[in-house]
Amino acid sequence: MDRIQILFLDSGTGGLPYMLRLKELAPEVRCVYIGDTANFPYGEKTLAQIECMARETTERAIKCFNPQIVVVACNTMSVAALKSLRASFDVPFVGTVPAIKLAAKSTQNKKIGLLATRHTIEDPYTEDLISQFAPDCKVYKRGDGELISFIEHHLFTASADERLAAVAPAVEFFKTCGVDTVVLACTHFLHLFSEFETAFGKSINVIDSREGVAKQALRLLSESPKLEDFSREIKDVPDMGVYVTSLKTASDEFEYKNWCRLSNVPFMGLLP
Prior knowledge:
Number of helices: 11
Helix content: 40-55%
Structural class: alpha/beta
CATH architecture of the largest domain: 3-Layer(aba) Sandwich
Oligomer: single chain
Strand content: 15-25%
Distance between the termini: 17 Å
CATH class of the largest domain: Alpha Beta
Radius of gyration: 18 Å
Largest sheet: 6 strands, parallel
Number of domains: 2
Shape: globular
Number of strands: 10
CATH topology of the largest domain: Rossmann fold
Low-confidence stretches: 229-234
């Protein structure tokens, strides 16, 4: 088989919806997803730690799969390390930054909620996005590492009531703030998109960046040389698969296999 076309990187399983959306738009594109579970969660790390971890994982992934395009399917990694990654590797990168621009176009009352990791909330890059695209809006921020942990480790066994209970603190916070638009600015939250929509009701619009990221990656791919122009081959890789960098406990492999089963994606095990 030819080299991988698009490589997706995240700290865990949160970015899977980005790969799934791209495959909906272009089923023929060969993708690999890598969760840096050895360093999860990124959102509680320092900037220097995130840059180092992202660079090391990206280097391993590129050596293994020689991708044409890399999608950083993690808001925290994108905000903290995308500039560094682009400077370090000779491959096009697509980042997943908070959809502030889209939120500013969507809001009617100029009150926007931003749900993210602690690092994304505090990073100056996020403030720059707000200043550039939503200068006339009030942005209410909430970092929710506890919800990210729930999604990573308990979501696939949680009942419908438990899922709604998990999003309830964030929903109540933003309702109290009076927002009419909420940005899900951590890829993990996309796994609970329908629960957020249900809990917010029709008065609050929930948005993310899946569509824009998928279309940008496909645009860059269309500008790359065709696969047949490359001689390097990647053996035994399906047209879509998930790898992780660590299986820390005996239950980890079971958890990730279940994630992949629910997403209908092959689990390939540890990153070589």
